[in-house]
Amino acid sequence: MPRDLDGRFLRTGPNALGVEDPRAHHWMLGDGMVHGVRLRGGHAEWYRNRWVRSSQVARKLGETYPGEVPPDDFACNTHVIPYKGRILALQEGGPLPYELDGELNTQRPHDFRSTLKGAFTAHTKYDATADELHAVAYYPTWDHVRHIMIDRTGRVARTTRVPVPDAPMMHDFALTEKYVVIVDVPITFDAEAAEAGALVPYIWNDERPMRVGVLPRAGGSARWFEVDPVYYSHTLNAYDQGDSVIVDFTSMPAPFYAAGRGNGGPSATGSPALDRWTIDLRAGRVRSSRVDDRPQEFPRVNESLIARRHRYGYTASAAAMWTAYETVDGVPPDTKFTNCLVKHDFLRGTRQVHRFPKGAAASEPVFVPRRGARDEDDGYIMSYVNDPDRGATDLVILAAQDFTGRPLARVQLPGRVPLGFHGSWVAA
Ligand SMILES: [Fe+2]
After folding, report:
1. Binding positions for Fe cation (predicted)?
2. CA of 124 to the centre of ligand 1 (A)
């Protein structure tokens, strides 16, 4: 275990608490549970998992919810990030973030010193140079989406309303030094589905074009570009290059059904892959290219380079993730590329694959810089990887510069961490 690692590796995901009818449950809506490992001085001190205490979770656990319950209250299940000495659990589409302490106990809803009015996002972008936290938020009843900039004081300093019709579901966006890239995916709020009791009343809307909006970071209006429909899943990173904006991201072929068809899970006509958009602002067009067509997701980058040019990126692939997308009318995933972590070198156009045994399941790879690092990839990759032989999960730590080599450390956890969503290294 590297001795310079002093902090917590945290990852969250939906862990439904007290589901009475699994058929009526939606995969996106499980109560958020954060799984964490505390590392210090070359040792793993503890592993713990805690549900985020929304009012509903507190009630189900027989606890008292302290204070006033915020509107759209939910046990945030999508991301967990460090922000100015705090740990925030995040959710898109309405709920406020929840603040956790270092032992993963829920403290209180977080509204950025009373400056956040309404919905936030799960996929923020922290620009380390500017010390700004950016978000693009959506909400079913809004006729716009909001670009929210939180400045170095931890307060919302600017909110830009960008008119967008039909209330789309915007899971992620991208940030460069100059621009906010808004992705208007044709998955829109469906009032009929909501009335009929759909838990996630968002449908793929064939009538609607797919657009990419480029909004100056300082505010103003967005310039829109139409692109071929695709499900924009996650941003790896984005940056400015001359008169162009480069966006690296994972996508799934359209159409994508968040609620699935028949089986309740998500479904698409294929598995996710890694793509690049080159948004040429001078010529007024977007060029789309495929970086890697093998199934992979959960793209990450050295976070100090968010909004700036990166050379390396990291993704995960797990067979269990892709089976979720297999449907009668879908294309089965490429089974030749499963259960691994991938390091992409965008400069050379090459990649390295760290494979795990069949039945393992690697989750999102988080890059952690080594203390005193100068090179972009001088650091560690951390991921929860299921060990099928043990029936439990390991925290696997790789040296990012020796990606295919033996892991530096493998912390055997006492149980299985289910495949979940996103997380972070939270330095002490
Ligand atoms: Fe996500």
Report:
1. 123, 171, 234, 422
2. 10
